[in-house]
Design a protein that fits this description.
InterPro entries: Glyco_trans_1. Pfam families: Glycos_transf_1. It is a single chain. The chain has 12 helices and 13 strands. By secondary structure, the protein is an alpha/beta fold. The protein has 2 domains: 172 residues, Rossmann fold (3-Layer(aba) Sandwich), CATH 3.40.50; 168 residues, Rossmann fold. It has a 7-stranded parallel β-sheet, sandwiched between helices. It has a 6-stranded parallel β-sheet with strand order 10-9-8-11-12-13, with helices on both faces.
């Protein structure tokens, strides 16, 4: 069996998801390829997976004709989905949504593309995230729906021991854009830096992405809040090294801060938990799949900076609670988000769709 996964560019959570699920399915003797229509810095994370970068119709047709994929999973790119049918692809075509930013943005996009998806796709796929499930059910009835959790590499990505830093680190992962809510990150960081002058803020992301206006505002806020000496930017860190950084943040006595308005899944949060790095996050829907307040992490109401700071102080100062959260979080991710579970769900989906084709 041969499957192609597609997305716009190899970056962020989608790059991570595609790479991990290819590994999961390879273990079940499924050959997986990747197609991106635009190149990106995350491409260097990809090893031993056939990967193609092109938006040229003729090149995509040659690829599809040559490889004869049993199934193609197209994430978000409705134009590419339609192109695949137009150039003659007759295999299973699955349209996937992983997250589309804020609730309004997601709703507007899904209303706009619903008709084209229903006319073209054999099925739709999305993670166990309540707002995505609701929007998909509202906008795309009449086509098979498949909904299951994304995987994490629970065997090869995890805690690594390093000498602890002599200062606490507050980490943040994301693009400088509205949905990632960098403003709250800087406001919370400024409050904590005033309370704990030795702390540092580490930002991880692909600096080639994001709107120039947002990045300019970010720099203005950094200076206005007097955080320049506290802020360390880590640009385009190879994914395999993120386990080291998350482990270092956890052992420093700090934590990962996630300030997103809305998340479809939230790979950075789940991976921090896997690396014994405690997490403080907004209650942003998809996060609820793996983070329970004071059990596997801490939640705070978005925009409530005072409560966020209070929760951060608890996470940094209450040693028994911190140890308990770290232990329970790592165990939860390993138990519920393995590659094996994802592969089983994915193969059941394909079997169901193949059976439906035979019946019809």
């Amino acid at each position: 069996m041969k499957v192609l996964f597609t997305f716009f560019n190899p970056s962020g959570g989608m790059e991570t998801l595609n790479r991990i699920r290819c590994k999961a399915l390879n273990q079940q003797k499924v050959e997986c390829h990747l197609l991106y229509t635009v190149d990106g810095n995350g491409r260097r994370n990809i090893k031993n997976i056939p990967t193609f970068v092109t938006n040229d119709e003729a090149a995509i047709k040659r690829l599809v004709d040559r490889e004869r994929y049993d199934a193609v999973v197209v994430c978000s790119d409705v134009v590419l989905m339609q192109l695949l049918r137009r150039i003659g692809y007759e295999g299973l075509l699955i349209f996937e949504i992983q997250g589309l930013g804020t609730l309004k943005t997601a709703s507007d996009i899904l209303r706009d593309i619903a008709g084209r998806v229903l006319q073209t796709a054999d099925a739709v796929l999305y993670p166990e995230t309540s707002h995505i499930r609701q929007l998909m059910n509202e906008n795309m009835p009449g086509v098979p729906h498949f909904c299951f959790d994304d995987p994490l590499d629970t065997k090869d990505f995890g805690y690594v021991s390093y000498p602890p830093k002599p200062f606490p680190v507050i980490g943040w992962v994301g693009r400088i854009e509205e949905n990632k809510n960098w403003r709250d990150f800087l406001l919370i960081g400024a409050r904590l830096a005033a309370l704990e002058p030795t702390c540092y803020l580490w930002v991880f992301g692909d600096l080639s992405l994001g709107e120039p206006r947002e990045k300019a505002l970010f720099e203005q806020w950094v200076d206005a809040l007097r955080l320049r000496e506290k802020l360390v930017m880590h640009a385009n860190i190879p994914h395999e090294q993120m386990a080291d950084y998350m482990s270092i943040i956890g052992d420093s006595g700090g934590f990962l801060l996630s300030t997103s308005i809305l998340e479809g899944f939230g790979y950075a949060v789940a991976e921090a938990m896997l690396c014994r790095c405690p997490v403080l996050t907004t209650d942003s829907d998809g996060i609820r799949r793996f983070l329970e307040h004071d059990v596997t992490g801490k939640l705070y109401p978005r925009t409530d900076i005072a409560k966020a700071v209070q929760a951060a102080q608890s996470l940094m100062g209450d040693a028994p609670l911190r140890r308990r959260i770290v232990k329970q979080a790592e165990r939860h991710i390993k138990t519920h988000f393995s590659c094996e579970k994802y592969a089983d769900n994915f193969l059941r989906m394909l079997a169901s769709l193949k059976e439906a084709r035979v019946r019809s």
